[in-house]
C-alpha cells in the first residue's frame, strides 16, 4: 500500500492506493516521480502470505485477542494563561459626575478591588468612565456598553487578550468603605422630572459611621420609609444639581431636627461656601 502526497508549497491533495493507484480530483499523476511527490510505502512485502496467515489463525487466539483490553492514557491539555497584565484600573473623578475622588483599583493576582467612598452617587457607578492601562492587545469589560461601564453589575470581569490569543481574566470587586458623615439614600420609582407631580420613593438615613462630637443629640438613623418626592425651585431647577421637595405620610424628624411632613433638599449649587442659607436663617431668628 502506498500513500502519494502532492506538495506545491502547501499540501493540496492525497490518494491512497490498494493494489493500484487512484487520484483525488485529478490533482496529480501517481506515475509522476518528480521531486514534488512524496511516496510513503506502508505495504507488507508478501500480501498473499499475510492474508493466508489471517485465514488460518486459530479462533481461540482471536478470542483471546478480542478479550484483551487496551489501556489508553488520558491526555490532559493545560489551558495557558496570558503573561500580559493590567497595570492600572482607574475611575477618574474628572470624567465622572458627583464623584469625590478617583477610584483607583488595587490589583492583586487576577482580582481588581475598587474601594468606593460610601456617599458616591450610584449613577456615577452605573455609568462610569473607566481608564485601563495594559500591555495586552485587547481589553473587554463585561459591563461595558460602548461608552461607559456599569460597575454595579453582578459578576464583573475584565478580560485581556495578547497577540497569541491567550487570555487573562480579572474579577472586579466593589468594596464600600466606612463613612464618617450621615448618608441619605433615596430610591425613586422613576426619574424625578416634574416640579408639580409627586412620585413615590423610599428614604433612609444611615448615621452608623458618625461618632463622638460629630453626632449631635437626636441625630439618629432612619429606616426605609415611604415618601413622596418632586422637583422644586424656578431658575435653580435648571442647574445641574437640582433641589427637591419631600413629603412624608406623617410628621418625621430628620437628622435631629423638629418633626415635619414636608422637607426641602436644597442643592446650594451656586453657594460655594455652603453656609449662606444657614447664616441667613440663623440671622433671621
Question: Which properties best describe this structure?
Answer:
285 residues, mainly beta, five-stranded mixed sheet, five-stranded antiparallel sheet, 16 strands, 11% helix
Please explain how this structure is put together.
The chain is mostly beta strands and 285 residues long. Helix content is 11%, strand content 35%. The protein is built from 4 helices and 16 strands. The chain has a 5-stranded mixed sheet with strand order 6-7-11-10-9, with no helix packed on it. The radius of gyration is 38 Å and the shape is elongated.
* Beta-strand residue fraction: 25-35%
Q: Detail the poorly predicted runs.
A: 1-44
Number of helices: 4
Radius of gyration, in Å, reads 38 Å
* SSE sequence, one letter per element: EEEHHEEEEHEEEEEEEEEH
Q: Describe the global form.
A: elongated
- End-to-end separation in angstroms reads 111 Å
| Adjacency order of strands in the biggest sheet | 6-7-11-10-9
Total beta strands: 16
Which structural category do the helix and sheet elements fall into?
Answer: mainly beta
Largest sheet: 5 strands, mixed
* Nearest-integer average pLDDT: 77
Helix content: 10-25%
What's the SSE blueprint?
Elements: E1 2-8, E2 10-17, E3 37-41, H1 47-55, H2 59-67, E4 86-91, E5 103-104, E6 106-108, E7 111-116, H3 122-126, E8 131-134, E9 138-141, E10 157-161, E11 167-176, E12 183-188, E13 199-206, E14 222-231, E15 244-252, E16 260-265, H4 276-284
Parallel strand pairs: 7-11
Antiparallel strand pairs: 1-2, 1-3, 4-5, 4-8, 6-7, 9-10, 10-11, 12-13, 13-14, 14-15, 15-16
